[in-house]
Amino acid sequence: MMRQYELVERVKSYDPGADEAMINRAYVFSMKAHGAQKRASGDPYFAHPIEVAGILTGMKLDGASIVTALLHDTVEDTTATLEEIEQHFGPNIARLVDGVTKLSRLELQSDGTRQAENFRKLLLAMSEDIRVLLVKLADRVHNMRTLDFIADPQKRRRIALETMEIYAPLAERIGINDMKDELEDLAFAQINPDARVSVMARLEFLRTKGGNLVERIIAELKRTLDADGVEVSISGREKTAFSIWRKMQRKNVGFEQLSDIMAFRVVADSVENCYRALGVIHSHYPMVPGRFKDYISTPKPNNYQSVHTGILGPERQRIEIQIRTRAMHDVAELGVAAHWNYKQNGSPTDGKQYRWLRELLDILEHAAGPEEFLEHTKLEMFQDQVFCFTPKGEVVALPRGACPVDFGYAVHSEVGDRCIGSKINGRLMPLRTQLANGDQVEIITSKTSSPSPTWEQFVVTGKAKARIRRFVRLQKRTEFVDLGRAILQKTFRQEGQPFSEKGLDGVLRNFKCEEVDDLFAMVGEGLVTGREVLVAVFPGLKQPAPQAPGKVVPIARARAPKAGAGLAIPIRGLIPGMAVHYARCCHPLPGDRIVGIVTTGKGVAIHTIDCETLESFADTPERWLDVGWDVGEVTQELVGRLNVVIANEPGSLGSLTTVIGKNLGNITNLKITNRSVDFFEMLLDVEVKDVKHLSNIIAALRATPVINSVERARG
Ligand code: MN
After folding, report:
1. Most confident of the following: 413-427, 536-550, 561-575
2. How far apart are alpha carbons 358 and 343 in whole angstroms?
3. 76 is catalytic
4. End-to-end CA gap in the chain
5. How confident is residue 473, by pLDDT bands cut at 50, 70 and 90?
6. 591-612 burial string, b = 16+ CB within 10 Å, else e?
7. H-type helices in 15-129, by residue range?
8. Confidence of residue 335 (pLDDT cuts 50, 70, 90)
9. Range(s) for CATH 3.30.70.260 in the chain?
10. Contact at 8 Å (CB) between 423 and 474?
């Protein structure tokens, strides 16, 4: 286990300005917090955070990262709290530790590589500070190094798979290749131990056969380059067992055919010398065709730069050579951390950065000094996305601002269409709730449910929008067709004429309709009146309808409705905003006497027969429609609006709501319209089943002492 002073010295060696006292305090705090806890290996638990800190010193990370590494498991695994961390180490360290803790709580709940990419994005999005991710990765490296101590083979395998699918690619993504190699190889040892053993055995055989081949090749290459006056440093190594295995799988070749079991790196002091070194090597050794790649002039998308070539080397074996500058080398090895080092040491960066890091680096470029460098490294690239879980643990990526309806449609069109409610992290939440990273979302569906036009106002995904619009269009059309058919049936019957769909075929062209449903829809929508169609079918009926226009007084109709004659068009609890909707002035309820007013292009508005608004339609009787309730079909709760005058005294509002609640009314809106010393006047919207339900509530309210008067609001 690394000693306290060793750790401090290591950090000071590359970051002389690091807060030595804070590192010491963190070391002691962590040791005390973990106390007698033991790792699966039997080591004191405290050895783990120190090892993690040690891994990060290898990457030359700043003091804050080291302190965070020392504290990273204290909140999750000991009695220490985030508040204590903040007290002792300040808000920045607390924020970093909190970030690592949150990442540790996330676990990919379902296996399946399909989910891995989204999960990686989730981790990136959750690590608002790049240091959070670096500490998490170092944590994983140490856990993988000690994986063999875990007794449960299934658990070992799960952790190894997670490492292979999530953490190794993450390390690669942020450019830390050494870490990626190590994570992959450790996971490989767990997932496919037999394969690894055979690769290792083969390597061992080649090693004994060739002696210290790697050294000999390095020496020979160095001599060749020196002779031509090219100043370079050369290193060589065997590739990891996993990368050899993967190549054998991918290229479907045997071990002997693999050219690059050994890789050599030539590091030059300038780009120019890289190409000079390449020239020297190619002029001394035969080049293996198809192996040459110039990533200096054309960097990889993650901004990796190097020239790669394959040659028949000094001892006639195929070897791979990578040639790069020191800066390119550090970027290839350390990725993001390398950028930080350059800032730290005041060396210039070459400006060509990782494409996905560009935004981040913009911030860095404008940071005042090296200390601020990592402070401001927010991972911006997934800030426009949120990642949520299904109850089965699958990750769903959505644009920021998405709601449960978007989630439902992302899972499956049917789930979206049938959605009636949602649970977020186990709690029932409104469908319009904005989802946050890591939310677990459960969509409650009902077979009889369908999309609501109001959803369109808050969904953000194109898929949800398109599905809702399509549904509304179809639904509207269906309703207009039904309504138009009913209007025509009624008009024909009133005139004593036979009605049949076939009878309409002859006049379709008059109305520029292709089929009879088109005509129904036009009538339903109010674009064509029933009488116009009637006259078209029976041209003899030219004279106006018996009820003379202008003489129909709504109130008179109210007193003598043509009820019972079977003429009324049945109205169900329909979806508002479609062919039929309830007027907002009078809030009709099932059981109320009602009348429909046809509005061109909008279908029919239903009013109560005594609504004052109706007076404005007295001159247009052709727009009036006899309608009645289709009782027994009403499933939807409707809103009744009440005018209430209530005593201005303590508890009176409580009495009001209690009475309504006891009578199973649900208050959906309350507005005080007038207040005086003695009384409040208010408008109250109450969800009820029908007019009888509302009448019960009114009666109960009238019997309540603090309530002065209750009336239904009209007009
Ligand atoms: Mn840990």
Report:
1. 413-427
2. 15
3. yes
4. 82
5. confident
6. bbbbbbbbeeeebbbbbbbbbe
7. 20-34, 47-58, 63-71, 74-77, 82-105, 116-126
8. low
9. 638-712
10. no
**What are the start and end residues of each CATH 3.30.460.10 domain in the chain?**
195-339
Higher pLDDT, 657 or 473: 657
pLDDT at 545 over 60: no
Residue with tokens 């109010």: 526
Asked whether the beta carbons of 697 and 688 are under 8 A apart, the reply is yes
Nearest to 141 by CA among 221, 55, 42: 55
The residue type at 435: L
CA atoms within 13 A of residue 491's CA, in its CB half-sphere: 28
- How does pLDDT run across 575-614, given as a tens digit for each residue? 445 677 778 788 888 778 888 888 776 778 888 888 888 8
Most confident of 83-92, 99-108, 205-214, 462-471: 83-92
Mean pLDDT for the stretch of residues 52-64: 88
Q: What is the 49 CA–ligand 1 centroid distance (Å)?
A: 6
| Whether the predicted pLDDT of 351 surpasses 80 | no
How much is the pTM? 0.56
Q: 333 catalytic, yes or no?
A: no
Look at residue 573 in the predicted model and tell me its pLDDT. Answer: 45
Distances (CA, A) of 593 to 275, 486, 629, 699: 92, 19, 9, 20
Of the candidates 190, 189, 186, the one whose C-alpha atom is nearest the C-alpha of residue 144 is 186
Hey, is 48 helix, strand or coil?
Answer: helix
In the numeric block, which tokens belong to residue 166?
């999530």
Class for the domain spanning 638-712: alpha beta
Which one is catalytic: 77, 372, 394, 610? 77
CB 452 within 8 A of CB 417: no
* pLDDT for residue 356 is more than 80: no
Ligand 1 centroid to 105 CA: how many Å?
11
What's the full length of the chain, in residues? 715
CATH topology of domain 4-190: Hypothetical protein af1432 (1.10.3210)
Catalytic site residue from 9, 76, 228, 501:
76
CATH 1.10.3210.10 residue window(s) in the chain:
4-190
Does the domain at 195-339 match CATH 3.40.109.10? Answer given as no
- The type of residue at 226 is D
Between the CA of 178 and the centroid of ligand 1 the distance, in Å, is: 20
Cα separation, 240 vs 669, in Å, equals: 68
Per the model's pLDDT, the better-predicted residue between 205 and 615 turns out to be 615
Helix axes 63-71, 130-145, angle to 10 degrees: 50
CA of 130 to the centre of ligand 1 (A): 17
Residues 6+ apart with CB under 8 A from 365: none
CA distance 647 to 445: 44
Q: How far is the CA of 109 from the centre of ligand 1 (A)?
A: 19
* Token couple for 445: 């569906």
Helix (H) or strand (E) holding 146: none
Say yes or no to pLDDT of 267 above 90.
yes
Whether 7 contacts 50, CB under 8 Å = yes
Residue 340 has pLDDT above 90, yes or no: no
